[in-house]
Amino acid sequence: MKRINISRYNYKLIVKLFGISLFLGCVKDVAFKVPRSSCSEGMEINTTFAEVKNIYVDGVVEIQEDLIMEGYIVSSDKEGNFFGTLHMQDSHSNPTEGFQLDIDLRDSHLFYENGSKVFIKLKGLYLGRSKGVYKIGGVFNVFGNLTIGRLPVTKVGEHLFRSCDVIVAIQPTPTTINMLEDSMISTLVQLNNLEIVEEQIGLSFALPQEVTERRIKDCDDNELILLNSGFSDFQAEKLPTGNGTLTAVLIKDNKDFQLVISDLKDIDFANERCAEIQDEFTSPNIFISELADPDNNNGARFVELYNSNEEPLSLKGWKLRRYTNDNDQVSSTIDLSGFSIAAESTFVISPKALEFETVYGFAPDLAVTTNSPADSNGDDNLELVDPFETVIDAYGKIGEDGSGTNHEFEDGRAVRRAEIFRGNMNYIASEWLVYNDT
What is the pTM of this model? Predict the structure, then answer.
């Protein structure tokens, strides 16, 4: 049976392609050869995790030198939340690097326990990098492209050896969501003051037979994904309601860090939840300061906001709404959450960021799609709305097509007069300098 190069917690694309055949592929084989269970001593270590990673350039690299490195297993498939992968780090405490080893060995915890020291003979293995994660294993051909695949079970015992050293308790690296970095990938980390986001409390860890993302956050509302397998033994267990400590292997999906636990003992959420933080604010000192529909270049359109406060302000919960032509219903919306405006500074939104930068010589603060509020052709109406659904500022008159009116800026622009420092929920023409082709 062909083996698919996916871990048990990273196979969404394959599920879509092969459907139920994937689940059949996860059934334990009745008979298969297992690697030797005896331990090994006296291997000469001649490379490090960092040195092996430096071999990688691009694509998939076959390691042809007689290199041997040692590491410590930090994951376990005993509860079924890991599948076909071993995560290891270069030290049982204070690690500097981690690796993911893809193997076609079920119940690998019986041979390579969590905390055990292992030796890896690298000659003949393949090295690659996928979605920010360094992997070693076999090789797999996907539509003509080589990628790291699971090392066949018959080959595992030729490359991976358990040390005779006593199994040690891995000391997780204490960290926070904001301090996570790539060097921690495939290592064991520990984060405090975490809790499940309120809207997911009461849900199970995972949907049956589906990889499931659950969101966790700290007391500053920084969020992270807890990734769970729908095949795990604790799939149907309810997510904990409290706050506390999470110990997990750090992985990455392109730019996003994620956490994977080996079992429920990795979660200790016995404390009270974080006190609710009020992080949504309003201010009349944020307003629309300019709209542009440059003549002969609709790719250079933009909307500019201005903060006249002497302090920066978060835009969490703020929205910019567009009413196209004479519509009295919202046509499109830009969610400004995740951004802030510096004190006495502008915030520029562009529907075509590359063209904007070519024309104006600097990048916009926010790149959005076409047909958004930042892509008006000059006869539309806009509203700036705070987190509490209050209209703070408006341009134009809702329900009135701007063509031929005092708020038309087709092939031109509309600029707020310099003496205006506050928004106005009602459009006042005298607050603006409007330029158009008529």
Answer: 0.61
